[in-house]
Every structure is written in structure tokens, then in C-alpha cells.
Design a protein that fits this description.
Layout: E1 11-15, H1 28-38, E2 44-48, H2 54-59, E3 65-66, E4 80-83, E5 93-96, E6 113-122, E7 125-133, H3 140-160, E8 165-171, H4 183-189, H5 195-200
Parallel strand pairs: 1-2, 7-8
Antiparallel strand pairs: 2-4, 3-4, 5-6, 6-7
InterPro entries: Endo/exonu/phosph_ase_sf, IPPc, Sph/SMPD2-like
Pfam family, one: Exo_endo_phos2
Organism: Phytophthora megakarya
């Protein structure tokens, strides 16, 4: 079942927290199966931290097209794409970040980065779907590494998806309000539309240095 209407498609982004059980606060063998079932209703799903419970995530998932795992911790990036729409025969491209920081999180422990998976929407219509997991933490080094991540991704998109329709989804670990975070520059420099800014905040970008916006 798709959540999208006629001539539309639905997407979801989900950090599935698939770290080994010793590093997890939950019961991943149970919760990961449920996550896989729940994301089946979307046409395209990008997941992050799909590490050591990948088989559980796919066990009861219904999407027909799914990328193969790149491995658990510390070998894989944890990035995968699942889709009810067909993948391009070009396959998935996996790219590791050129910079990372271990200041507040073990970001250099795995080959975090981004992926590109072209997807066929209809005859002659292909969209380039990018999935990312940026550096975490809020130290200066973490934020500088994250800025480098977004710059690397933006340059890759410019070089590899010129003129193509593009969707970027992932765990950016960013806030518009942080002084050194560059999600605003990434969005504007590469002419992206942020769905949250567009439809929830009616085009109003949060100001750098302002108080963090909390969910209510």
C-alpha cells in the first residue's frame, strides 16, 4: 500500500538505530522488524544506521527494491534505500566523507557518508535519491566536519546530477540555529527546497544563533 495519491509519490527518512545491542538502549531484534514493516507504506524510504540488524529490518518489509547492506559496524555506512519504485540499473553509489570528527561521537568508527540511488518514477522519468548521515556532535570540530560533509555532498550532486530531479534525505545532525552549521548555505547554494521550511515554516528560515527550536 502506498501513502501517495495519483501522480504523486511518498518518501520517508528514518534513522533505525541499528548499532550493536551493547550500544543500544532498546531491543533492536524486535523493534527493527517493526520499523521495516512500518516503512513499507512509503514509496521510497532512506534509512541510516542500518548496521547490525539489517536482516531484521528487511525481514517483513514489503518494498520490492532494496539496496544490499554494506556491512555492520565498523565496516558499513549504515545507509540503505528501499523502494516500491524500480531502481535504475546503474545501481547505488556509496561515497565516504573526506572529513570526520570523534570529539563527541564515534563518527570515524564507521565509513559514514552518502549514497546516490537513481529511481524510475515513470517512463522516461528518473529521480536521483541521495541518502546521508552527517557527522554528529556540537563541538567546533564536529560542526566543521559536518560543514565539510555538506560541501562534499553539494559538489558531488553538482557534478553527478546536473539537470536531474534530486531528493536529498538523511540524518543531517544539523540545526539552522547553530552558528557553525551550514544547512542554510547548503540549501540556498544548491537551490534546494527544504520541505520543513516551505510547508511548516512558510518559507521562514530560523536565524543563526537563535534558540534551538523544540518539538511541541
Amino acid at each position: 500500500m502506498s501513502l501517495a495519491g495519483v501522480n504523486t509519490f511518498s518518501v520517508i527518512c528514518y534513522n533505525v538505530a541499528g548499532l550493536p545491542a551493547l550500544l543500544s538502549s532498546g531491543n533492536p531484534e524486535v523493534t527493527t522488524v517493526d520499523m521495516g514493516k512500518r516503512i513499507s507504506d512509503w514509496d521510497i524510504a532512506n534509512v541510516q544506521e542500518d548496521f547490525n540488524y539489517h536482516t531484521y529490518l528487511y525481514k517483513e518489509n514489503k518494498q520490492k527494491y532494496r539496496t544490499a547492506t554494506s556491512g555492520g559496524v565498523p565496516f558499513g555506512s549504515g545507509l540503505n534505500t528501499l523502494s516500491s519504485l524500480p531502481f535504475s540499473p546503474l545501481g547505488i553509489e556509496r561515497v565516504k566523507w573526506s572529513e570526520c570528527s570523534n570529539d563527541e561521537s564515534a563518527d570515524c568508527m564507521t565509513p559514514k557518508g552518502f549514497t546516490l540511488q537513481p529511481i524510475h518514477l515513470a517512463d522516461g522519468a528518473i529521480i536521483d535519491v541521495y541518502n546521508l548521515h552527517a557527522d554528529a556532535g556540537i563541538s567546533d570540530n564536529d560542526q566543521k566536519a559536518r560543514a565539510s560533509n555538506l560541501k562534499q555532498l553539494g559538489e558531488y550532486i553538482s557534478e553527478n546530477s546536473p539537470g536531474n530531479a534530486v531528493i536529498v534525505m538523511g540524518d543531517t545532525n544539523t540545526r539552522y540555529t547553530r552558528e557553525l552549521d551550514t544547512i542554510l548555505e547548503f540549501t540556498q547554494n544548491y537551490n534546494f527546497t527544504d520541505g520543513w521550511i516551505e510547508y511548516v515554516r512558510k518559507g521562514d528560515f530560523p536565524k543563526k544563533g537563535a534558540e534551538a527550536i523544540k518539538c511541541e
